[in-house]
Sequence to fold (308 residues):
Amino acid sequence: MSSSHISTMPSAELPIWAITPGLPSPYIARAALHAAAVLDQRGSRVSDARESYWHRATGGLFQETDLRRGERLLIDCGLVKEQEGVLVPTAELKELLDGTVEHALEVVTARTLIQTEPKWLTSTAPTEVPEVLQTLIPDPLQREELLLALGRRFDDTRQRLLGGIGEEIVAAEARRELELLGYLELARAVRRVSLESDQLGYDVSAPRVSGNRRLLEVKATAVEPSRTLNVHISRNEATVGSRFPNHWALVICRVTNLDTASGEIFGWCSRTSLDALLPQDTTAGHWEEALIEIPAEAFTPGLPRAVE
Fold:
């Protein structure tokens, strides 16, 4: 095999198997499947596997260096575990080797994209993906289905990250307020209860100087709030808010930088502010989650005060 396959490999900032961010070349992806075929299901020592690569390379189909790149690809996408000098294939890899090459390439591609999360996957439209993906998954319907599924997965992951940052910003502000008031013990009692359960109907528990604690349901966004804010609210959150109307509050937090986990609190509104915005149950069923549009003027800046 000519060295032209090697010359197309990317610079040092990409993994040794990548031809573009998040994707191997079809040649290296196929080399990975050939490398997988030499591994013992119970595990193979790296030295034994690489000797087998050399013997396969002498057959002329793949170069030894490309089989090693394929090995790294299998490790990076989680189909092979490297444990103390032993390469252990997963049960999923064995199933892939028993199936079609086309299906195996699709799975390797999907797992690689999941592990690397290249920026092009969430910043471009499905029709603008790297050309190599069209070679790895030539069927346009399968390719579009994969991209849509991965897009939803990354959107969910990003939203969970936003939510966690927003909750921490709110908890930190509640602690800071109590500390400034001189109530250090109460500040230490501020908790992100969402880390313990997501069924409580609120995310942060923050004491007041006197009276009942504040139950803060935090909604985080990366978008600059405008005249209205679109908020997803669950029936459980609304129900808990109606049970504790004087203590529960909906807090909006804008995350300005994911990398530094920084942001600002836009404001809060009471449960009663949502009454006219929530959907109504019907004889056909009752709602479980709703997207409501809340006017910006419904929010009070900052957090509900620690001193009533």
Notes: The chain has two domains: 4-138, 164-298.
